UniProtKB/TrEMBL annotation:
Name under which the protein is recorded: MFS transporter
Lineage of producing organism: Bacteria, Pseudomonadati, Pseudomonadota, Gammaproteobacteria, Oceanospirillales
PROSITE patterns linked to this entry: MFS, PROKAR_LIPOPROTEIN
SUPFAM superfamilies hit by this protein: MFS general substrate transporter
Organism: Neptuniibacter pectenicola
Superkingdom in the source lineage: Bacteria
Protein backbone atom coordinates (compact mmCIF):
# COMPACT_ATOMS: atom_id res chain seq x y z
CA UNK A 1 0.00 0.00 0.00
CA UNK A 2 1.03 3.64 -0.56
CA UNK A 3 1.58 4.55 3.06
CA UNK A 4 4.08 1.68 3.53
CA UNK A 5 6.32 3.14 0.80
CA UNK A 6 5.57 6.81 1.25
CA UNK A 7 4.02 8.12 4.42
CA UNK A 8 0.79 9.96 3.63
CA UNK A 9 2.16 12.96 5.52
CA UNK A 10 4.14 13.80 2.38
CA UNK A 11 0.94 13.76 0.32
CA UNK A 12 -0.34 16.32 2.81
CA UNK A 13 2.81 18.37 2.18
CA UNK A 14 2.24 18.15 -1.59
CA UNK A 15 -1.38 19.21 -1.14
CA UNK A 16 -0.18 22.03 1.11
CA UNK A 17 2.27 23.22 -1.53
CA UNK A 18 -0.52 23.25 -4.13
CA UNK A 19 -2.70 25.17 -1.68
CA UNK A 20 -0.05 27.81 -0.99
CA UNK A 21 0.78 28.06 -4.71
CA UNK A 22 -2.87 28.91 -5.23
CA UNK A 23 -3.93 31.02 -2.25
CA UNK A 24 -0.68 32.98 -1.82
CA UNK A 25 1.55 32.35 -4.84
CA UNK A 26 -1.22 33.36 -7.25
CA UNK A 27 -3.81 34.91 -4.93
CA UNK A 28 -1.30 37.26 -3.31
CA UNK A 29 2.17 37.44 -4.87
CA UNK A 30 1.03 37.63 -8.49
CA UNK A 31 -0.29 41.10 -7.60
CA UNK A 32 3.26 42.45 -7.65
CA UNK A 33 3.58 41.42 -11.29
CA UNK A 34 0.08 42.55 -12.26
CA UNK A 35 0.20 46.00 -10.63
CA UNK A 36 2.30 47.94 -13.18
CA UNK A 37 0.11 47.07 -16.19
CA UNK A 38 -3.12 47.24 -14.19
CA UNK A 39 -2.06 50.56 -12.70
CA UNK A 40 -1.30 52.03 -16.13
CA UNK A 41 -4.51 50.71 -17.64
CA UNK A 42 -6.73 52.04 -14.84
CA UNK A 43 -4.54 55.11 -14.11
CA UNK A 44 -4.08 54.12 -10.47
CA UNK A 45 -1.96 56.19 -8.08
CA UNK A 46 0.62 54.60 -5.76
CA UNK A 47 -1.80 55.13 -2.89
CA UNK A 48 -4.60 53.32 -4.76
CA UNK A 49 -2.22 50.44 -5.52
CA UNK A 50 -1.41 50.27 -1.82
CA UNK A 51 -5.12 50.32 -0.93
CA UNK A 52 -5.80 47.34 -3.23
CA UNK A 53 -3.01 45.42 -1.51
CA UNK A 54 -4.14 46.51 1.94
CA UNK A 55 -7.73 45.50 1.17
CA UNK A 56 -6.49 41.98 0.51
CA UNK A 57 -4.91 41.85 3.93
CA UNK A 58 -7.98 43.28 5.63
CA UNK A 59 -9.76 40.25 4.23
CA UNK A 60 -6.91 38.08 5.48
CA UNK A 61 -7.30 39.60 8.94
CA UNK A 62 -11.01 38.80 8.93
CA UNK A 63 -10.13 35.20 8.02
CA UNK A 64 -7.80 35.04 11.03
CA UNK A 65 -10.71 35.88 13.31
CA UNK A 66 -12.98 33.41 11.52
CA UNK A 67 -10.61 30.54 10.86
CA UNK A 68 -10.73 28.70 14.18
CA UNK A 69 -14.52 28.51 14.05
CA UNK A 70 -14.43 27.47 10.40
CA UNK A 71 -12.02 24.61 11.11
CA UNK A 72 -14.10 23.46 14.08
CA UNK A 73 -17.29 23.48 12.01
CA UNK A 74 -16.06 22.13 8.66
CA UNK A 75 -12.76 20.46 9.48
CA UNK A 76 -9.43 21.48 7.93
CA UNK A 77 -10.05 19.69 4.64
CA UNK A 78 -13.22 21.54 3.71
CA UNK A 79 -12.09 24.84 5.23
CA UNK A 80 -9.17 24.81 2.79
CA UNK A 81 -11.47 23.84 -0.08
CA UNK A 82 -13.86 26.70 0.68
CA UNK A 83 -10.99 29.17 1.02
CA UNK A 84 -9.51 28.21 -2.36
CA UNK A 85 -12.88 28.42 -4.09
CA UNK A 86 -13.28 31.94 -2.73
CA UNK A 87 -9.82 32.92 -3.98
CA UNK A 88 -10.40 31.49 -7.44
CA UNK A 89 -13.88 32.96 -7.92
CA UNK A 90 -12.94 36.49 -6.83
CA UNK A 91 -9.78 36.54 -8.96
CA UNK A 92 -11.86 35.52 -11.96
CA UNK A 93 -14.38 38.31 -11.27
CA UNK A 94 -11.54 40.85 -10.95
CA UNK A 95 -10.66 40.00 -14.55
CA UNK A 96 -14.12 41.23 -15.58
CA UNK A 97 -13.87 44.58 -13.77
CA UNK A 98 -12.31 47.94 -14.66
CA UNK A 99 -13.33 49.89 -11.57
CA UNK A 100 -10.91 50.56 -8.73
CA UNK A 101 -13.49 50.27 -5.92
CA UNK A 102 -14.93 46.98 -7.20
CA UNK A 103 -11.45 45.51 -7.67
CA UNK A 104 -10.48 46.56 -4.14
CA UNK A 105 -13.62 44.92 -2.71
CA UNK A 106 -13.14 41.71 -4.67
CA UNK A 107 -9.48 41.51 -3.72
CA UNK A 108 -10.45 41.98 -0.08
CA UNK A 109 -12.65 38.88 -0.42
CA UNK A 110 -9.71 37.11 -2.08
CA UNK A 111 -7.81 37.82 1.13
CA UNK A 112 -10.50 36.10 3.19
CA UNK A 113 -10.10 32.95 1.11
CA UNK A 114 -6.30 33.16 1.17
CA UNK A 115 -6.24 33.49 4.94
CA UNK A 116 -8.67 30.62 5.50
CA UNK A 117 -6.66 28.28 3.26
CA UNK A 118 -3.20 29.36 4.44
CA UNK A 119 -3.79 29.33 8.20
CA UNK A 120 -5.61 26.02 8.04
CA UNK A 121 -3.04 24.22 5.92
CA UNK A 122 -0.13 25.37 8.11
CA UNK A 123 -1.92 24.06 11.19
CA UNK A 124 -1.90 20.55 9.68
CA UNK A 125 1.87 20.32 10.17
CA UNK A 126 1.39 19.74 13.90
CA UNK A 127 -1.00 16.85 13.23
CA UNK A 128 1.02 15.05 10.59
CA UNK A 129 4.66 15.49 11.75
CA UNK A 130 6.61 15.12 14.96
CA UNK A 131 8.74 17.99 16.25
CA UNK A 132 11.93 16.89 14.51
CA UNK A 133 10.37 17.21 11.04
CA UNK A 134 7.95 20.12 11.30
CA UNK A 135 10.27 22.88 10.09
CA UNK A 136 11.22 20.90 6.99
CA UNK A 137 7.60 19.91 6.28
CA UNK A 138 6.29 23.47 6.60
CA UNK A 139 9.19 24.64 4.45
CA UNK A 140 8.32 22.24 1.65
CA UNK A 141 4.72 23.41 1.75
CA UNK A 142 5.88 26.99 1.34
CA UNK A 143 7.62 26.07 -1.92
CA UNK A 144 4.22 26.81 -3.45
CA UNK A 145 4.73 30.54 -2.84
CA UNK A 146 7.86 30.64 -4.97
CA UNK A 147 6.27 28.59 -7.72
CA UNK A 148 3.45 31.15 -7.84
CA UNK A 149 5.97 33.96 -8.31
CA UNK A 150 7.65 32.02 -11.11
CA UNK A 151 4.30 31.43 -12.81
CA UNK A 152 3.30 35.09 -12.71
CA UNK A 153 6.76 36.26 -13.78
CA UNK A 154 6.63 33.98 -16.82
CA UNK A 155 3.01 34.50 -17.84
CA UNK A 156 2.13 38.15 -17.18
CA UNK A 157 4.75 39.82 -19.46
CA UNK A 158 3.77 37.49 -22.30
CA UNK A 159 0.07 38.22 -21.80
CA UNK A 160 0.71 41.97 -21.70
CA UNK A 161 2.82 41.92 -24.85
CA UNK A 162 0.22 39.79 -26.64
CA UNK A 163 -3.01 41.32 -25.38
CA UNK A 164 -1.74 44.80 -24.46
CA UNK A 165 -4.21 46.61 -22.16
CA UNK A 166 -6.25 43.43 -21.63
CA UNK A 167 -3.25 41.32 -20.60
CA UNK A 168 -3.69 41.92 -16.87
CA UNK A 169 -7.37 40.96 -17.09
CA UNK A 170 -6.56 37.67 -18.80
CA UNK A 171 -3.91 37.07 -16.13
CA UNK A 172 -6.40 37.49 -13.30
CA UNK A 173 -8.93 35.25 -15.05
CA UNK A 174 -6.41 32.52 -15.84
CA UNK A 175 -5.06 32.44 -12.31
CA UNK A 176 -8.61 32.34 -10.92
CA UNK A 177 -9.45 29.24 -12.96
CA UNK A 178 -6.18 27.57 -11.92
CA UNK A 179 -7.01 28.14 -8.25
CA UNK A 180 -10.48 26.62 -8.67
CA UNK A 181 -8.93 23.53 -10.28
CA UNK A 182 -6.40 23.33 -7.42
CA UNK A 183 -9.26 23.45 -4.90
CA UNK A 184 -10.86 20.41 -6.53
CA UNK A 185 -7.57 18.49 -6.54
CA UNK A 186 -6.57 19.20 -2.96
CA UNK A 187 -9.96 18.39 -1.43
CA UNK A 188 -9.49 14.85 -2.79
CA UNK A 189 -6.05 14.54 -1.18
CA UNK A 190 -6.32 16.24 2.22
CA UNK A 191 -7.09 14.32 5.41
CA UNK A 192 -7.46 16.13 8.71
CA UNK A 193 -5.38 13.79 10.88
CA UNK A 194 -3.24 10.64 10.49
CA UNK A 195 -5.84 8.76 12.55
CA UNK A 196 -8.23 9.03 9.59
CA UNK A 197 -5.92 6.60 7.78
CA UNK A 198 -4.91 4.60 10.86
CA UNK A 199 -1.45 6.18 10.81
CA UNK A 200 0.87 7.82 13.31
CA UNK A 201 2.46 11.22 12.58
CA UNK A 202 5.56 11.06 10.40
CA UNK A 203 8.63 10.59 12.57
CA UNK A 204 6.70 8.82 15.35
CA UNK A 205 8.84 5.69 15.16
CA UNK A 206 12.12 7.56 15.41
CA UNK A 207 11.07 10.45 17.64
CA UNK A 208 12.19 8.73 20.82
CA UNK A 209 15.52 7.66 19.33
CA UNK A 210 16.48 11.13 18.10
CA UNK A 211 19.44 12.79 19.75
CA UNK A 212 18.15 15.21 22.34
CA UNK A 213 20.32 17.91 20.79
CA UNK A 214 17.54 18.64 18.29
CA UNK A 215 15.03 19.21 21.05
CA UNK A 216 17.36 21.28 23.17
CA UNK A 217 18.43 23.41 20.20
CA UNK A 218 14.89 24.37 19.29
CA UNK A 219 13.63 25.01 22.81
CA UNK A 220 14.87 26.18 26.15
CA UNK A 221 14.96 24.62 29.56
CA UNK A 222 11.88 24.78 31.80
CA UNK A 223 13.16 27.62 33.98
CA UNK A 224 13.39 29.85 30.88
CA UNK A 225 9.66 29.64 30.13
CA UNK A 226 7.69 32.93 30.01
CA UNK A 227 5.07 33.71 32.61
CA UNK A 228 2.11 32.95 30.39
CA UNK A 229 0.88 31.72 27.04
CA UNK A 230 -0.26 35.27 26.34
CA UNK A 231 3.33 36.49 26.56
CA UNK A 232 4.37 33.78 24.12
CA UNK A 233 1.71 34.79 21.59
CA UNK A 234 2.44 38.51 21.93
CA UNK A 235 6.18 37.99 21.54
CA UNK A 236 5.97 35.67 18.53
CA UNK A 237 3.14 37.79 17.15
CA UNK A 238 5.27 40.94 17.34
CA UNK A 239 8.04 39.23 15.37
CA UNK A 240 5.50 37.99 12.84
CA UNK A 241 3.99 41.51 12.60
CA UNK A 242 7.36 42.92 11.56
CA UNK A 243 7.77 40.21 8.94
CA UNK A 244 4.28 40.87 7.57
CA UNK A 245 4.87 44.63 7.50
CA UNK A 246 8.17 44.41 5.63
CA UNK A 247 8.02 41.50 3.20
CA UNK A 248 4.69 42.61 1.74
CA UNK A 249 6.05 46.06 0.86
CA UNK A 250 8.91 44.45 -1.03
CA UNK A 251 6.77 41.81 -2.73
CA UNK A 252 4.12 44.34 -3.75
CA UNK A 253 6.31 47.15 -5.06
CA UNK A 254 9.65 45.72 -6.21
CA UNK A 255 8.45 45.19 -9.80
CA UNK A 256 6.90 48.67 -9.83
CA UNK A 257 10.27 49.99 -8.57
CA UNK A 258 12.09 48.22 -11.39
CA UNK A 259 9.72 49.54 -14.06
CA UNK A 260 9.10 53.10 -12.87
CA UNK A 261 12.21 53.98 -10.88
CA UNK A 262 14.87 52.06 -12.81
CA UNK A 263 13.17 52.11 -16.24
CA UNK A 264 13.26 48.33 -16.74
CA UNK A 265 11.00 46.95 -19.42
CA UNK A 266 8.14 44.86 -18.10
CA UNK A 267 9.66 41.75 -19.72
CA UNK A 268 13.03 42.32 -17.98
CA UNK A 269 11.30 43.07 -14.67
CA UNK A 270 9.29 39.89 -15.10
CA UNK A 271 12.46 37.88 -15.67
CA UNK A 272 13.98 39.23 -12.46
CA UNK A 273 10.75 38.59 -10.57
CA UNK A 274 10.71 35.04 -11.91
CA UNK A 275 14.38 34.54 -10.95
CA UNK A 276 13.59 35.73 -7.43
CA UNK A 277 10.71 33.24 -7.40
CA UNK A 278 13.01 30.39 -8.44
CA UNK A 279 15.41 31.27 -5.62
CA UNK A 280 12.53 31.40 -3.15
CA UNK A 281 11.16 27.94 -3.97
CA UNK A 282 13.45 26.16 -1.54
CA UNK A 283 13.81 28.99 0.99
CA UNK A 284 11.24 27.56 3.39
CA UNK A 285 12.61 24.02 3.19
CA UNK A 286 16.25 25.09 3.65
CA UNK A 287 15.75 27.45 6.59
CA UNK A 288 12.98 25.32 8.07
CA UNK A 289 15.33 22.30 8.12
CA UNK A 290 18.09 24.51 9.52
CA UNK A 291 15.80 25.52 12.37
CA UNK A 292 15.02 21.83 13.03
CA UNK A 293 18.71 21.19 13.68
CA UNK A 294 20.11 24.48 15.00
CA UNK A 295 17.09 25.98 16.69
CA UNK A 296 14.14 28.19 15.78
CA UNK A 297 15.80 31.31 17.20
CA UNK A 298 18.91 30.83 15.07
CA UNK A 299 16.82 30.27 11.94
CA UNK A 300 14.67 33.37 12.50
CA UNK A 301 17.67 35.57 13.25
CA UNK A 302 19.54 34.47 10.13
CA UNK A 303 16.55 35.09 7.88
CA UNK A 304 15.90 38.56 9.32
CA UNK A 305 19.58 39.47 8.78
CA UNK A 306 19.25 38.55 5.11
CA UNK A 307 16.01 40.53 4.82
CA UNK A 308 17.62 43.56 6.44
CA UNK A 309 20.42 43.47 3.88
CA UNK A 310 17.90 43.07 1.05
CA UNK A 311 15.84 46.09 2.12
CA UNK A 312 18.91 48.23 2.81
CA UNK A 313 20.31 47.51 -0.66
CA UNK A 314 16.95 48.30 -2.27
CA UNK A 315 16.98 51.65 -0.44
CA UNK A 316 20.62 52.40 -1.19
CA UNK A 317 20.14 53.69 -4.77
CA UNK A 318 23.59 52.27 -5.59
CA UNK A 319 22.40 51.04 -8.97
CA UNK A 320 21.09 47.92 -10.61
CA UNK A 321 23.76 45.58 -9.19
CA UNK A 322 22.74 46.44 -5.64
CA UNK A 323 19.12 45.87 -6.64
CA UNK A 324 19.97 42.46 -8.15
CA UNK A 325 21.77 41.42 -4.95
CA UNK A 326 18.81 42.69 -2.93
CA UNK A 327 16.37 40.53 -4.90
CA UNK A 328 18.66 37.49 -4.62
CA UNK A 329 18.94 37.87 -0.82
CA UNK A 330 15.19 38.29 -0.49
CA UNK A 331 14.55 35.33 -2.78
CA UNK A 332 16.76 32.82 -0.97
CA UNK A 333 15.11 33.59 2.36
CA UNK A 334 11.71 34.98 1.34
CA UNK A 335 9.17 32.54 2.73
CA UNK A 336 11.02 30.78 5.52
CA UNK A 337 9.66 32.90 8.39
CA UNK A 338 6.10 31.41 8.25
CA UNK A 339 7.55 27.89 8.22
CA UNK A 340 9.71 28.54 11.29
CA UNK A 341 6.93 30.38 13.12
CA UNK A 342 4.50 27.50 12.49
CA UNK A 343 7.10 24.97 13.65
CA UNK A 344 7.90 27.02 16.77
CA UNK A 345 4.27 27.11 17.86
CA UNK A 346 3.84 23.40 17.13
CA UNK A 347 6.93 22.66 19.21
CA UNK A 348 5.75 24.33 22.38
CA UNK A 349 2.00 23.72 22.45
CA UNK A 350 -0.18 20.61 22.40
CA UNK A 351 -1.60 19.81 18.97
CA UNK A 352 -5.13 20.85 19.90
CA UNK A 353 -3.88 24.30 20.97
CA UNK A 354 -1.30 24.91 18.24
CA UNK A 355 -3.80 25.70 15.49
CA UNK A 356 -5.63 28.26 17.63
CA UNK A 357 -2.36 29.87 18.74
CA UNK A 358 -1.13 30.08 15.14
CA UNK A 359 -4.36 31.90 14.31
CA UNK A 360 -3.75 34.42 17.11
CA UNK A 361 -0.15 34.97 16.00
CA UNK A 362 -1.29 35.36 12.40
CA UNK A 363 -3.56 38.18 13.58
CA UNK A 364 -0.41 40.21 14.27
CA UNK A 365 0.99 39.17 10.89
CA UNK A 366 -2.19 40.32 9.15
CA UNK A 367 -2.06 43.72 10.88
CA UNK A 368 1.48 44.11 9.55
CA UNK A 369 0.37 43.22 6.05
CA UNK A 370 -2.48 45.73 6.24
CA UNK A 371 -0.23 48.54 7.45
CA UNK A 372 2.70 48.00 5.10
CA UNK A 373 1.39 48.55 1.55
CA UNK A 374 -0.73 51.62 2.22
CA UNK A 375 2.02 53.33 4.24
CA UNK A 376 4.68 52.44 1.65
CA UNK A 377 2.47 53.62 -1.22
CA UNK A 378 1.73 56.91 0.56
CA UNK A 379 5.41 57.54 1.38
CA UNK A 380 6.40 56.74 -2.23
CA UNK A 381 3.82 59.17 -3.53
CA UNK A 382 5.12 61.94 -1.26
CA UNK A 383 8.80 61.32 -1.99
CA UNK A 384 8.62 60.17 -5.60
CA UNK A 385 10.31 56.80 -4.95
CA UNK A 386 10.19 53.73 -2.71
CA UNK A 387 13.61 54.40 -1.18
CA UNK A 388 12.24 55.63 2.16
CA UNK A 389 9.78 52.73 2.30
CA UNK A 390 12.55 50.14 1.88
CA UNK A 391 14.66 51.93 4.49
CA UNK A 392 11.75 51.75 6.93
CA UNK A 393 11.52 48.00 6.24
CA UNK A 394 15.24 47.58 7.01
CA UNK A 395 14.77 49.33 10.36
CA UNK A 396 11.78 47.12 11.15
CA UNK A 397 13.70 43.90 10.50
CA UNK A 398 16.52 45.10 12.76
CA UNK A 399 13.90 45.37 15.50
CA UNK A 400 12.73 41.85 14.59
CA UNK A 401 16.28 40.58 15.13
CA UNK A 402 16.34 42.15 18.59
CA UNK A 403 12.96 40.62 19.52
CA UNK A 404 14.09 37.22 18.24
CA UNK A 405 17.23 37.23 20.36
CA UNK A 406 15.10 38.08 23.40
CA UNK A 407 12.63 35.26 22.74
CA UNK A 408 12.42 32.63 25.48
CA UNK A 409 10.26 29.69 24.39
CA UNK A 410 8.11 27.47 26.53
CA UNK A 411 9.23 24.01 27.59
CA UNK A 412 9.34 21.60 24.66
CA UNK A 413 6.29 19.40 24.13
CA UNK A 414 6.47 16.61 21.52
Amino acid sequence: MLHKKLHYAWIIVLSGAITLFSCLGLGRFALGMLLPSMGNSLQLSYTQMGIISTGNFMGYLFAVLLCHHLIRKLGARYAIFLGLLLVGATMFFISLSSHFVLIAILYCITGIGSGAANITVMSLVAHWFTVQHRGRAAGFMIMGNGLGIVASGALIPWLNSTWLDDGWKIGWGTFGLVVIIAACITVLLFRNTPAKLNLEPYGHNDSTSKNTTTTESSTSRPHEAPNSLRQLIVHIGSIYFLFGFTYVVYATFIVTTLVEQYQFSEADAGSLWMTMGVLSIFSGAVFGSLSDHLGRKFGLTLVFILHTLAYALAASELGTLALFISMALFGISAFSIPAIIAATISDVLPIEEAGKAFGYVTFFFAIGQITGPTLAGYVAEQTGSFTSSYLLCACATVLAIVLTTLFRPLTHRP
